[in-house]
Amino acid sequence: MSGSRWFDKSLVLRDGVRLISRIWLPNNNGPWPALLMRQPYGREIASTITYSHPEWWASKGYMVIIQDVRGMGSSEGIFNGFSQEASDTSETHEWVRSLKECNGKLGLYGFSYQGFTQLTGELNSKPPDCLSPAMTGMNIKDHWCSDGGAYWWHNNIAWGLQIAALKMKRENKLLEWEKIRLALENKSYLREGIDTLKKYDPNSFVLEWLKNLNNALPFEEFKPISTWIKQPMLIIGGLWDPHLKGAFDLYKKSKEAGGSPEIIIGNATHLNWWEGSQESLLKFFDKHLKSDEKFNSENPKSEKKIWNISLNKWEELNNKFHPEFIFGLKSDGTANIEVEDGSLTINSKGSGWFTIVNDPWRPTPSDGGHLGPNPGKFNRSIIDKRLDVGVFQTNSFEEDQYLRGIPTLEIQVKSDQPNFDICLALSLVEQGTDKVNQFSTGFLRVKNSKISEECIYQITMQPTNICLIKDSKLRLSISAAAYPAIGVNPGFEEGNIGAPSANHRVITLSFSLKRTFMKMTPFFIK
């Protein structure tokens, strides 16, 4: 055993609200540098689904503070989500530094919501000594809520219900907690989750996001404080994390503010990280919270790396992207029927056409990727055999090729309904196997289009880094649904987006490929 010890301590904020923290201390004489996490899920858990327990950090010479944010856990007040955190964060920082056990050095850690709380504070407040936001972003619409205007159906509802269940437990409403838990276990949340949220947590920010998207209303804006993001910062992202674009955006903003951020994009989903992630964090904290200037000058190297999906190794992360060529799409009309018909050709113009029908009774399913119920790499061979999926594939590569950056598709399409979705998946097809290894997905929701009028649309996919190994093939799959990653489009208005209903219309999409192409864009768009 580490021999660390812990106790609970409260902070009374300026408005009289009391926040409760659990503090772990090393089993030796202090004071020590502090690691702080502010979170809504219970200080006892301490995000141990992704991080080592606070006892481990204490054994490395840190005092660790896990705080229940306002209105969650044992802390007083009402939980209103993101907008409440700026002043609470700054007051907490001042309080931590004042504790007799703290030597004045403060580092921040945490992922997702706990990553966001590291980035928001009061203007002109003293910045932390270092921070390590993981799997997070600052733009609510683009980094938390939607892809291409398509609401994260499975992710958002499941998360909103988790928060609602925590509130029910806090209020000792155990029957309501059971009903929410059952909805998640039997998957009825996919159909009834919005109504369940309206019943048990009507002010949920998840509901507000859906309303804003449906009605084209503005989202609340959050901007990181420049003096904070200039501080030493280790940004952690995952290739299959829904907030990955937020990680790249944060890196860019830190550089623009004059910072020198470190960044690691790993072989990770939101909840499942790679072996060695804790050691990278420890090295970062030791460097900036413990080491003297001489040590730092002797160790100038910073972490900037990204995992290569197919080669299973780390590579340097820079703004070079591969390939510089583009892919044309070709079909004689049966790309959704015959694999041999749809072709993806390098540095060649597209030609032909194909048509798919979205039947809401049996919408094209989704899995894996950054939004599917089981995120990560996924064999989509069965999905690609459906006739509501257009499949475009290269010939076998004669030598290794690299895809590095953000895959982007421009495609010309017309629809027989004013609203529709375009859903994309990129996969690596291995030689001599039936595996279709999906590694990147992308989505676009189109609203109020002119019926049967061709328009060109652009869809961006999840950033990626992969080697297309010799003798393998690259495949692009196109569908009009990806359920339950995003809700099924009813074809008109907005009220019925979600689970299929009797009011959903059949949607026919006709694609013209002459002006259609796919290219790679850099991770950090200037």
Q: What is the end-to-end distance? A: 50 Å
Under the CATH scheme, which architecture of the largest domain would be assigned? 3-Layer(aba) Sandwich
Contiguous low-pLDDT stretches (5 residues minimum) are: 293-298
Number of beta strands = 24
Radius of gyration: 24 Å
Q: What share of residues is helical?
A: 10-25%
Quickly count the domains.
Answer: 3
Overall spatial form: globular
What portion of residues belong to β-strands? Answer: 25-35%
CATH class wording of the largest domain: Alpha Beta
Structural class: alpha+beta
Name the quaternary structure. Answer: single chain
Main β-sheet description? 7 strands, mixed
Domain Xaa-Pro dipeptidyl-peptidase C-terminal: 282-519
InterPro entries: AB_hydrolase_fold, CocE/Ser_esterase, Galactose-bd-like_sf, Xaa-Pro-like_dom, Xaa-Pro_dipept_C
GO molecular function: dipeptidyl-peptidase activity
Pfam families: Peptidase_S15, PepX_C
Which features would summarize this protein structure in a list?
526 residues, alpha+beta, Rossmann fold, Jelly Rolls, 6-stranded mixed beta sheet, 32% strand, globular
